Amino acid sequence: MLQYQPTLQQVSVLKSSYLANKKAGESPLFWYTKIMKRAFTLIELMVVIAIIALLTGAAALAYSGIQERARDAQRSNDLNELKISLSTYYEAQIPQVYPIATSKTILNNSTDILATTLKPNFIRNIPLDPINSGNYVYKYMSNSTGTDYTLYATLENTNNTLGWGGGSSWVADGFQVQP
């Protein structure tokens, strides 16, 4: 174990303070121990590091949840934008119908049914899911007559029932959410 070695100047201060404080009744090692108290012990440093690690972990968990909620809010806004575009398209058609897709169509902004019918007159770009991979894609399906449609989105926060996407309902994680 390393021992503290005072410098020559500190030794001379210790000697003079010993002589000065001998009359006051202080311990001869008073100044030496006072110099030693300036350093942190290993235990104190470990406690500080542990506290910092706990705070960092808590902040990381909170940040992750914030990102999920932000992406879910973006999904709700995207579906609402699609709803408005589909409503505008519906009103402009004679007879009034929505784009017909009798099976779930993944929206990709280029070749899907909504991209070919809504762009560029009713919407500039078809919004894509913030993650846009795996289960996180938007899907569209209408009935065979084009009088109703459903937009599909997968939410990350399963307790979330944000907003309304369009048609008579929108589906999140396979559960139908009524407007």
Explain what the structure shows:
This protein is of the alpha+beta class and 179 residues long. It folds into 2 domains: 8-39, no CATH class; 71-177, no CATH class. 44% of the residues lie in helices and 10% in strands. The protein has a 5-stranded mixed beta sheet, with no helix packed on it. A hairpin with a 2-residue loop joins strand 4 (169-172) and strand 5 (175-177). Residues 162-169 and 173-179 have low confidence and may be disordered.
Broad shape? rod-shaped
Instruction: Give the strand tally.
Output: 5
Task: Count structural domains.
Answer: 2
Gyration radius, rounded: 35 Å
Note the total helix count.
4
Helix content: 40-55%
Query: How is the largest sheet built, in terms of strand order?
Result: 1-2-3-4-5
* Average residue-wise pLDDT: 76
N-to-C SSE string, H for helix and E for strand: HHHEHEEEE
Q: What structural category do the secondary elements indicate?
A: alpha+beta
**Uncertain parts:** 162-169, 173-179
What distance separates the N and C termini?
Answer: 71 Å
The proportion of residues in beta strands is 5-15%
Question: What is the oligomer described by this structure?
Answer: single chain
* Largest sheet properties: 5 strands, mixed
